[in-house]
């Protein structure tokens, strides 16, 4: 009920009571009904009391309405204040978005400086080691098997069986991945304990040691030294490999190796992604794979018979793995530590600024610092979960399955078997040893070319589409390869 309604009702009641009082007074004056004065006065008193109660009731209602109006006014003031705060917050968000947009534009304008190029080249030498050591065992397979036969005959005075020599060669191949298990376990710890740059420098000690052991294998007349060298070099740089061997030992190797990567494959991409500008981060990420394929091709070229693919040259071929390690050990100390590591992990803001100034060749590094600060805040706001919680979480199950399937699609593609056994596969198809090595070089050259081609295609066609095309091609041609080997096997059995 409004204030006007209450006033109108009160006026109406007063008018009615006035009319009643006037009528009573007229009756008293006329004396028509001979009412006694006392009775009339009592009635008048009663009417006055009712009028008083009505007035008091109206006053109470008026007071309540006033209180309601005051409360409504207070609420309106509060709403107005909140509205003003929302407007201020909206203006602040707009200013923040504009500032963020300008900052991103400035970050996207950053180019590839000389010192940044130098640092990336020094870092990817680690991936060159990985590519080289992955492919180097392929070409000299026959030479290594002959060496093992000679060592076994000198030791035991009898010829080794073909089955056992294949098992020994399988160990030489697979132990590279066994070492990678240790590298995978310790990669994250070394990155946080010694830094990205420090971890790479320490890792070169393993690379040099493993290369020296492999290089002096023939001189020591011990194939165990080859195994040890391959194991250490695996800790240094091994990636997940597909070892298509028959022994259960090697099957176990594959199972674990699919999960763990070596130190170089952990530290190098981490270092490059953290020193690269925002606009170059995606493209520079492919430099890792390019270095791998170049290392593979280099090992295949050096492994031909005209260069080092001989009974005397294969130890030198394996020992040349020392060159990328020594070169990185000489070049990397000049490079700065990862700015993200310095700022986020160590909380050394001034050191991070110095590193950024060297990498960007500019004193304007506040945008990069702010970006890393935002990344740090985002990391702190995220809750950490255990491996069991990751596996059991329904919301994270789909990304987890995608990541596993992506890795399996790479491992089961069969390309790693080509890395290790392409020469023997080509020889089993009827090629001579020399022709088989040249065919292997052709595979390495195609990998380098396709890595270069994939860099622009990655942004043009998209990662998912490009990956699906690759998987489709591997699926189709793997069937053709399988059919061709089956036909050859049946033909050989028939003859």
Description:
Among the domains are: 3-84; 114-243 and 257-335, Up-down Bundle (Growth Hormone, Chain: A), CATH 1.20.1250.20. The protein is built from 20 helices and no strands. It has helices at 3-30, 37-108, 114-135, 141-156, 162-215, 217-220, 223-237, 248-257, 263-275, 281-302, 314-319, 322-331, 339-345, 349-360, 366-381, 387-392, 394-411, 415-428, 433-461, 463-494. The protein is elongated, with a radius of gyration of 43 Å. InterPro entries: GLUT, MFS_dom, MFS_sugar_transport-like, MFS_trans_sf, Sugar/inositol_transpt. The chain crosses the membrane at residues 112-132, 168-188, 200-217, 249-272, 284-302, 314-334, 436-455, 467-487. Pfam families: Sugar_tr (PF00083).
> In CATH, what is the homologous superfamily of the domain at 114-243 and 257-335?
MFS general substrate transporter like domains
Q: How would you sum up the major sheet? A: none
Gyration radius, rounded: 43 Å
By helix and strand content, what is the structural category? mainly alpha
Overall form:
elongated
Number of continuous helical runs: 20
């Amino acid at each position: 009920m409004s204030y006007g309604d209450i006033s109108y009702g009160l006026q109406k009641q007063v008018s009615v009571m006035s009319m009643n009082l006037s009528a009573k007074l007229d009756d008293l004056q006329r004396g028509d009904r001979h009412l006694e004065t006392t009775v009339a006065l009592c009635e008048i008193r009663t009417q006055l009391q009712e009028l008083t109660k009505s007035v008091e009731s109206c006053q109470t209602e008026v007071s309540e309405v006033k209180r309601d109006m005051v409360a409504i006014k207070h609420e309106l003031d509060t709403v107005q204040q909140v509205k003003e705060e929302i407007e201020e917050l909206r203006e602040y968000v707009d200013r923040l978005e504009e500032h963020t947009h300008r900052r991103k534009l400035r970050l996207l304008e950053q180019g590839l400086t000389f010192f940044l190029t130098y640092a990336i080249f020094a870092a990817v030498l680690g991936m060159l080691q990985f590519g080289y050591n992955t492919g180097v065992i392929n070409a000299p397979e026959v030479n290594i098997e002959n060496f093992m036969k000679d060592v076994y005959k000198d030791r035991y005075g009898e010829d080794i069986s073909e089955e056992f020599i294949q098992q020994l060669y399988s160990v030489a191949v697979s132990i590279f991945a066994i070492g990678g298990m240790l590298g995978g376990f310790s990669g994250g710890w070394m990155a946080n304990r010694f830094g990205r740059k420090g971890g790479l420098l320490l890792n070169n000690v393993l690379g040099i040691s493993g290369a020296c052991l492999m290089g002096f294998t023939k001189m020591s007349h011990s194939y165990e030294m080859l195994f040890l060298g391959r194991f250490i070099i695996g800790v240094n740089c091994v990636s997940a490999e597909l070892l298509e061997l028959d022994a259960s030992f090697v099957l176990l190797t594959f199972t674990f190796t699919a999960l763990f990567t070596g130190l170089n494959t952990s530290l190098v991409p981490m270092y490059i992604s953290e020193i690269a500008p925002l606009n170059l981060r995606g493209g520079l990420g492919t430099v890792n794979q390019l270095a791998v394929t170049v290392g593979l091709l280099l090992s295949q070229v050096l492994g031909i018979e005209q260069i080092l693919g001989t009974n005397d040259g294969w130890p030198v071929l394996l020992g040349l793995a020392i060159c990328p390690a020594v070169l990185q050990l000489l070049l990397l100390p000049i490079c700065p530590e990862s700015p993200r590591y310095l700022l986020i992990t160590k909380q050394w803001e001034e050191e991070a600024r110095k590193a950024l100034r060297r990498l960007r060749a500019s004193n304007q590094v506040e945008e990069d610092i702010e970006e890393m600060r935002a990344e740090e805040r985002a990391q702190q706001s995220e809750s950490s979960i255990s491996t069991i919680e990751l596996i059991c979480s329904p919301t994270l199950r789909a990304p987890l399955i995608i990541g596993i399937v992506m890795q399996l699609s790479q491992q089961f593609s069969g390309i790693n078997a080509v890395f290790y056994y392409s020469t023997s596969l080509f020889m089993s198809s009827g090629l001579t040893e020399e022709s088989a090595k040249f065919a292997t070089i052709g595979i390495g050259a195609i990998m380098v070319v396709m890595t270069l081609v994939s860099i622009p295609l990655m942004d043009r066609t998209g990662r998912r589409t490009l990956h699906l095309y690759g998987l489709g091609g591997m699926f189709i041609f793997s069937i053709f390869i399988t059919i061709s080997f089956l036909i050859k096997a049946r033909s050989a059995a028939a003859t």
